[in-house]
Amino acid sequence: MNSSRHNDQTAAPDARALPPPGAEEQAHSEQLACRVREEIMQAGDAIPFSRFMELALYAPGLGYYAAGRHKFGAAGDFVTAPELGPLFARCLARPCRQILEALAGGEILEAGAGSGALAADLLLELESLGCLPTRYAILELSAELHARQAETLMRRAPHLLPRVYWLDALPEGFRGVVLANELLDAMPVERFHVGPDGVRQLHVAWQNDRFAWVENPAEAAIRDRVASLALPPGYTSEINLRAEAWVRSMADVLQAGVLLLIDYGFPRAEFYHPQRTDGTLMCHYRHRAHDNPLILIGLQDITAHVDFTAIAAAGIGAGLRLLGYTSQAAFLIGCGLEQLAAESDPDNVRRHLELTQQIKKLTLPHEMGELYKVIALGRGVEEPLPGFTVQDRRGRL
């Protein structure tokens, strides 16, 4: 069953509805759980959920993204847009080409490149357009994913591999395009609850042989942010301070160019909608979606939707211009999706059907088309970007 992160076809209400992990997986999960329990003991009684999520996803050698489990595609836990086929990358090549031409050259930096599918397809399309970047940087903290990306590029675009290099930290300066597809949603979030006596910050403790939620008084930064939202008692949600800090850090190193960020989420008014009282936290395990991050530690993805108002504010506050914000469907159409689709030969039934399925998954409102958004923040690029001409939603932020 193919499923994107946001729209898994099978919703699992609790662990009993999830496929049981094998013995090797269970042993791996227990090893990470021991690591987390040690940190909880060192902290006294509990750790902030953001730290729990960080360990669950990124603990060296043990976290979900740091270990060797297959994550992407039908054999993994979820499917991202680049895994569907090359159409997504072919569309992205259009704004990349315009930005590189406006800068008279430059690099592309992809943050969190997954399997390497986007890098391979994007480089191949830019080559066909006669506008290859001088170099293609991949910012990747996972050694396992680094190896998988190199293998993908060697298999699909070996002649372009010399242009690719890997980073484990932000460069000191950068000119070009920064791409991040489904990166911000996997950054550790702070989780809070509005109680009758004020804002409480959710922590994770070890109780009765399992991880459990506990509430503590919120830190000042969280308390102040939540206070500005005027949420009612009983409301639970998330704040992604890490994503905002990441945007500011990228702004600091971006000498000229554009941050092009693609993820699922909402503007703030929709993110903290009165009816969204349980927040947006979601877990993905073998194409099942559920809302319990305290189980299957190290074996499942943990995500939260993106508050795009906060992302825009972080970029603008760091000196970038808001160049565009729209839905993924509108963005891809503005990038020439319809023209690329028209190139397909209907007589080649299999390939035409594959392309049709990609288009549906990428653009239909109940698939990725509406929930996924694209935001562009830039410096030194003035002209309108392809992708934001069909629909401009900046006024909604």
Question: How would you characterize the overall build of this protein?
Answer:
The chain has about 400 residues and is of the alpha/beta class. The chain has a single domain, classed as Rossmann fold (3-Layer(aba) Sandwich), CATH 3.40.50.12710. The protein has 13 helices and 17 strands. The strands form three sheets. Strands 3, 4, 5, 6, 11, 15, 16 and 17 form an eight-stranded mixed β-sheet that branches. Strands 2, 7, 8, 9 and 10 form a five-stranded antiparallel β-sheet that branches. Strand 8 and strand 9 form a beta hairpin. Helix 4 crosses helix 5. It is globular, with a radius of gyration of 21 Å. About 5% of the residues have low confidence.
Please name the defining characteristics of this protein.
397 residues, alpha/beta, Rossmann fold, five-stranded antiparallel β-sheet, 13 helices, 17 strands, globular
CATH topology: Rossmann fold
Q: Termini, distance in Å? A: 35 Å
User: From the structure provided, what is the oligomeric state, counting identical versus distinct chains?
Assistant: single chain
| Secondary structure: number of strands | 17
Q: Low-confidence runs (pLDDT<50, min 5 residues)?
A: 6-13, 72-76
Biggest beta sheet attributes? 8 strands, mixed
**Total tally of structural domains:** 1
Helix tally equals 13
Please state the structural category.
alpha/beta
Gyration radius, rounded: 21 Å
| CATH top level class name | Alpha Beta
What's the CATH architecture name?
Answer: 3-Layer(aba) Sandwich
Principal-axis shape: globular
Order of helices and strands: EHEHHHEHEHEEEEEHEHEHEEEEHEHHHE
